[in-house]
Amino acid sequence: MRHFPYSCLLLPLLAVLLTACSGDDGKTGGPPPAPVHVRPVARADVPRLLHVVGNVKASATVGVKPRVTGEIQEIHFREGQDVREGDPLIGIDPRPFEAALREKRGLLAKSQAQLSKANDDMRRYGKLVGGGYVSREAYEQTATEAAALKATVQSDKAAVESAALDLSYCTVTAPISGRVGALNVDKGNMVKTTDDTPVVTIDTLSPIYVNFSVPEAHLPVILERMRQGKVSIRATPTGGTVESGLLTLVDNTVDTRTGTIRLRGTFENSDRRLWPGQFVEVELPLGVARQALTVPSRAVQFGREESYVYLVGKDDRAVYRKVKVLFEHQGVSVVEGELAEGDRVVVDGQVRLAPGLAVQVLE
């Protein structure tokens, strides 16, 4: 009796199983088409509005420091109060400076009296030296004394002026108009001219500045707009209302580290809606892009080195296209790249896509 090897029986069985697993229709296996939503690439006139984050800054800030050393006797303002230039802020004990002024005035009076006598002596000796009653040397001595006393009088006058100036500094006045902050030194404390901490800080809130930076690529357009006339900008604080101002400064240097240029807007801020230190959203209009190539902003994906979109080709497969976003406006991105008007760009479902992958366009 002959025996057949088991391999001869297993090979046909495996062939049958493979045929059954593959199905009767003979189609090849693979991932199902990825469902996506698409929108057409369009051309449109789009306002070129640059949106950046800015920081509010007082148009002038002064830290008030004493110009004489002494004890604070009076406070003439309330913290958070608006003051005008020249308004008194604090009073320093004036008594030591009043005494110094009286002393300097006394010395001046003494030197003036001595000068008057020296001038009389010089005139009298001048008459006597001509008749030979006094020597030429004695006359010259009186003239020298008169000249020296004249210089002393000038010096004493300067000392009186300096003492009077120090006395006036006992009343510290506001150097600018604005809003005072918190008082850093209380009444009764000694203040010195060498103190680093100001007694109080004054900020000018109207007008007020908004500083912000934009990429240097926008600089030519901004400079051209400013040559044509005033450029309006808008700033919106978090939870606040839109404020309108003017672009008043383009810095003279591009920051080589960040590739940005610093700009400044000036706002009247009469209602005090902008406050120093606030972060605001700045909107800078740069004209209108005519018949620009546009795609929905959610269609643009950002990789490590470039931005891109996925198109749906004629064979319903995903096509990768590199794009450059020029700017955005109300959910629409103006782009440059290998796109054409009417191309179907994917706006939802990009996470499952890869170049050449089959897609299913959903309504």
Automatic annotation (TrEMBL):
* GO molecular function term, any single one: efflux transmembrane transporter activity
Q: Which SUPFAM superfamilies match?
A: HlyD-like secretion proteins
Please report a single Pfam family linked to this protein: BSH_RND
What start and end residues bound the annotated signal peptide? 1-22
Q: Where is the Multidrug resistance protein MdtA-like C-terminal permuted SH3 domain?
A: 291-349
Keyword Transport assigned? yes
Which part of the chain is the Multidrug resistance protein MdtA-like alpha-helical hairpin domain? 101-169
Domain Multidrug resistance protein MdtA-like barrel-sandwich hybrid span(s) in chain numbering = 61-202
**Keywords (A to Z) from UniProt:** Cell inner membrane, Cell membrane, Membrane, Signal, Transport
Q: Which GO terms describe its cellular component?
A: efflux pump complex
Keyword Cell membrane included in the entry's annotation: yes
Cell location: Cell membrane
Give the Multidrug resistance protein MdtA-like beta-barrel domain ranges.
207-287
Q: Which NCBIfam families does UniProt cross-reference here?
A: RND_mfp
The identity of this protein, by name, is: Efflux RND transporter periplasmic adaptor subunit
